[in-house]
Amino acid sequence: MHQPLVFIDGDQGTTGLQIHARLHGRSDLRLLTLPDSERKDPQRRAEAINNADVAILCLPDDAAKQAVAAIINPAVRVIDASSAHRTAAGWVYGLPELDEQQAERIAQAKRVSNPGCYPTGAIALLRPLVSAGLVPADYPLTVNAVSGYSGGGRAAVERHESPDAQAAQGVLVYGLNLDHKHVPEIQQHAGLSHRPVFVPSYGSYRQGIALTIALQTRLLPAGVGAARLHACLHEHYHGARHVQLAPLVHGEAAPMLDPQAVNDSNDLRLAVFANEVHGQVLLTAVFDNLGKGASGAAVQNLDLMLAAMA
Question: What EC number(s) are associated with this protein in UniProt (predicted)?
Answer without folding.
Answer: 1.2.1.38
